[in-house]
Design brief:
One of its GO terms (biological process) is carbohydrate catabolic process. It holds the Pfam family Glyco_hydro_1. There is one protein chain. The protein is an alpha/beta fold. The protein has helices at 17-20, 66-80, 91-94, 105-120, 136-142, 149-164, 191-198, 208-236, 258-280, 285-293, 302-310, 361-374, 401-419, 469-479; strands at residues 10-14, 84-88, 124-130, 171-175, 241-247, 250-253, 315-319, 323-328, 342-345, 351-352, 358-359, 380-384, 425-431, 451-453, 465-467. An 8-stranded parallel beta barrel has the order 1-2-3-4-5-7-12-13, surrounded by 4 helices. A 3-stranded mixed β-sheet has the order 6-8-9. A two-stranded antiparallel ribbon has the order 10-11. A hairpin with a 5-residue loop joins β10 and β11 (358-359). It is globular and about 60 Å long. The structure holds 6-O-phosphono-beta-D-glucopyranose. 6-O-phosphono-beta-D-glucopyranose (BG6) is lined by residues 16, 19, 176-177, 247, 319, 384, 388, 431, 438-441, 446.
Length: 485
Amino acid sequence: MGIKLQDDFLWGGAIAAHQAEGAWQAGGKGVSIADILTAGSHTEPRQITDGVVDGLNYPNHHGIDFYHTYKEDLALMGEMGFKAFRTSIAWTRIFPNGDDATPNEEGLQFYDDLFDEMHKHGIEPVVTLNHFEMPYHLVTEYGGWSDRRVIDLFVNYAKVVFERYRDKVTYWMTHNEISNQAAVSDNPFFDFMVWTNSGLKFDDKATLADKQAAMMQAGHYELVASAKAVQIGHEINPDFVIGGMVNVAALYPASPKPADMLAFQKARQARDWFTDVHVRGAYPAELEAFFKRTGIRPDITDEDRADLLAGTVDYMAISYYNSTTVRATSEQDAEIDHPADVEVVKNDFVKVNDWDWAVDPQGLRYALNELNDMYPYLPIMIVENGFGAYDEIVDGQVHDPYRIDYLKAHVAEVEKAIVNDGIPVIGYLSWGPIDIVSAGTGEMKKRYGYIYVDLDDMGEGSGERLRKDSFYWYKQVIATQGEDL
Ligand code: BG6
């Protein structure tokens, strides 16, 4: 039994353009940084190729063909009773190269039609401006977000879409999971996140300090771009609700040992400065201290600081999938500039999914409370949460009790966070309500959907859509405002 939530609670789901739309060259679309990512797996990382190489498998080129199937797909979301649906605008449909003098009308028209279709079903669009899909041309010609000029290019893109969809979209967010890149370390595995966030690619010679300096510079420009977009958005329509977006894996210390506690706290700070700048419009003390005592001095002007302060967000959008447990690797003081002082360890109190992501519903309530402690009363929208799993079709049906168990347990924690803890959570949009290409691995078989899509990792299959058991479960949850879990 769940707890009935407020009538205006935004129930629904979320996807991103590059993982769903496919049609990577249709309607004048340019090449994005997602279009040159090969397919990988749980054990094989995705490769970032120099342009599109013949003969390689690029799963984002086909996605689930949402570009052509969105009408039928949205009808299924409507059938589940969705109040809101989050997707991103593919920047490259609007500005194929990122620095084009004029926007691409065919791309603009596509999103006009898409948002109209959502409204037809009574579904509120929730729109991400930049979800791991910046124009590739901005990487080859500008070096991605390492170049200050990209701020204005992004802000211009934001202005164009804010004006165009002024009366169709109210809820916006700027950069998806902007803080993922803070994970950059000696381990090249995490370089992938700096690519998806910032379009930066490191060579083998890059030291940890080089990587951190590049990530912080790019992150700063992204934050300034976000703050400027927030200001312009509010000028265009004062009713716009514009947020930042971060992943909030709950962080735990491996033990109450003081060094572990400090390591855990520093790991959190190393990630949360992005949220601080979004919400408070200023860098936190430990990061200012880091800039002073290390050689890492990002280009931050007084004008930038004024912009950050003037462009604070209206709400925070978050994704939550798992928790992470860390310990100190020595008795030394863990520091924000020493990721090597912190090690991720297994938490014996939680199970993991097939991709080793810790399944921890209470961690979501913990993360929500932590956010509310840091930014009291700031509205929070959960824009991603879900269970990636292998599904099997048996006699034309997909029975997915594992997914229902995961979602049920997480929604129950959200309800407690709202009702027992008084946290202003305004919506729950689960990730991938329809199966899409995984961002991390490029697989189709890592499925999150209530709706099964008959496509495999090579993009082969009928593309047919099938309602899973979880489809009917979620429909009932929405119909009862979360009471019937
Ligand atoms: C988030 C991203 O990191 O996690 C999504 O915003 C992504 O784009 C989701 O799909 C789940 O990750 P994955 O790797 O299972 O697709």
